[in-house]
Specification:
Blueprint lengths: L1 E2 L5 H10 L6 H10 L13 H10 E2 L4 E7 L5 E7 L5 E9 L2 E6 L2 E3 L14 E4 L2 H15 L5 E4 L9 H11 L12 E5 L3 H7 L7 E5 L5 H7 L8 H15 L3 E7 L7 H11 L4 E7 L13 H13 L4 E3 L13 H8 L1
Parallel strand pairs: 1-2, 6-9, 9-10, 10-11, 11-12, 12-13, 13-14
Antiparallel strand pairs: 3-4, 4-5, 5-6, 7-8
Length: 341
């Protein structure tokens, strides 16, 4: 049996025609699923005969909720989801005045090895299919009873390490007959796989590209991000310039501030220098502290001082608001805690 969420409307339409059904039934089926109906038998305007055929060949691959945690402020909801094969992933819904955002996972685990991330500690198990990524949104919407309007691919996994499924997912959720989430409301975060960023530049997408930089030079970056041994910061910045030229879209640089490591005046000035002249935005993130390493987040004063250095040098900069720290909302923490119990 196949996960029907891995099909688009055209492929399901073809299946309908091959099985003696009217092609328009495909659109009806997906309309039900996008409304939160995850059982074929509950699709009222479709004949029992058609539904029986669907049940024979497909399942609706929406994960089960293993754990659901709500922050004290009720602005963050973290889910630990289980797929049919028992694998666990995390998704986080963040509620803002402008709408609900979801941080989705693209892989079970991760092989990138970034030291500040709990999801990579035990390596990668497998890629998620496009339908499995989509299913996180569908299930989260059902749980919170509200529409999700913004998507961030920044959960477990490296999106560009699961390139084809991620691109398919982005195209599907942005279709008007799908979830109708505009591409400008979608952010893809990568640690910097240079050839894939170049490939992404040719996909004709209007998403926001976010680069996890976290250091102003290669020596520092190599200490926390193994990918830095393969691609230098200069290579990343060059491909970002190429991406900006091809897409006319601003690039975001994620920078997790670690006390005594990358949060000093020297690093702020160095970061300002290398980003000078690039159409970009810097998102400063107080590092998520996890028990598997000794990285400590910067003090509030250091974070503000770092921002001021960048702004003084003409680099547009924001400090990411900390949300859900009381519910292990940082990537990989909840799954790892569950697996270790």
């Amino acid at each position: 049996m196949k996960n029907i969420l891995d099909l688009d409307t055209e492929k399901l339409k073809l299946w309908m025609q091959q099985n003696g059904e009217k092609g328009f039934r495909a659109k009806q089926v997906f309309q039900w699923i996008y409304k939160g109906i995850f059982d074929f038998r509950s699709m009222k305007n479709i004949s029992t005969n058609t539904l029986e055929k669907l049940e024979k060949d497909f399942y609706i691959g929406v994960p089960k909720v293993v754990t659901k945690l709500v922050s004290k402020e009720e602005d963050t909801v973290k889910f630990l989801f289980a797929y049919a094969d028992g694998n666990l992933i995390e998704s986080v819904v963040m509620k803002y005045k402008h709408g609900n955002s979801i941080c989705v996972s693209t892989q079970v685990g991760c092989r990138m090895g970034c030291k500040f991330c709990a999801s990579t500690i035990e390596g990668m198990v497998r890629n998620l299919s496009s339908g499995e990524i989509l299913a996180q949104i569908l299930k989260a919407q059902e749980e919170i009873g509200e529409r999700i309007s913004n998507v961030v691919l920044m959960g477990s996994g490296e999106p560009l390490d699961n390139y084809e499924n991620v691109i398919k997912f982005i195209r599907e959720i942005s279709k008007s007959e799908g979830l109708n989430i505009g591409q400008r409301h979608i952010t893809l975060s990568t640690c910097g796989i240079v050839p894939k960023i170049k490939e992404l530049a040719h996909e004709n997408l209007q998403i926001t590209l976010a680069i996890s930089l976290h250091a102003p030079n290669d020596n520092l970056r190599k200490q926390v991000m193994p990918i830095a041994n393969k691609y230098s910061i200069n290579e990343i910045l060059d491909v970002c310039k190429y991406y900006i030229k091809k897409t006319n879209r601003r690039v975001s640089f994620e920078y997790a501030l670690v006390e005594g490591f990358n949060d000093g005046k020297e690093q702020g000035e160095e970061l300002s220098t290398i980003l000078s002249g690039i159409l970009c935005h810097v998102n400063l993130i107080p590092v998520n502290e996890i028990k598997e390493n000794s990285l400590k987040k910067s003090s509030s004063d250091n974070i503000i001082n770092f921002k001021n250095i960048l702004c003084k040098n003409g680099i547009e900069t924001t400090i990411r608001r900390e949300m859900g720290s009381d519910i292990d909302a940082a990537c990989g923490q909840l799954r790892r805690r569950y697996l270790n119990n």
